[in-house]
Amino acid sequence: MSHTTEWKTHVYLFEEDHATKVRVELDTATTRLTGHGTARCNPADKDVPEIGDELAAARALENLAEQLKRTAYGDMAAAGAAPQHAPLTAYDLG
User: Fold this and answer.
1) Which residues constitute the domain of residue 62?
2) pLDDT (0 to 100) of residue 86
3) Which of 17, 56, 61, 85 is the most buried (most CB within 10 A)?
4) SS (H, E, C) the chain
5) Which strands sit side by side in the sheet containing 8-16, from one edge to the other?
6) Does residue 3 belong to any structural domain of this protein?
7) CATH of the domain at 40
8) What is the C-alpha separation between 24 and 73, in angstroms, rounded?
């Protein structure tokens, strides 16, 4: 069976309280998820904004990926597939 679809993503980066924060939004037409990530520069380190952007974006995408995986596991269970369990991440713990 052939299947083609398009998912829309938006990545928003901004500075707030001496931290780089990123919000990643995913719209699959049936599901909307938002991932979040933050990076802070150690005061002892050289300030390189691109590194903060990359790290915060990576963390937001990682958060989004975990949410998407949990959504897929829920859909699998609803379809009668064997239950799958996503491992807990730091984002799940608080």
Assistant:
1) 8-78
2) 58
3) 56
4) CCCCCCCEEEEEEEEECCEEEEEEEEECCCCEEEEEEEEECCCCCCCCHHHHHHHHHHHHHHHHHHHHHHHHHHHHHHCCCCCCCCCCCCCCCC
5) 8-16, 19-27, 32-40
6) no
7) 3.30.160.240
8) 21
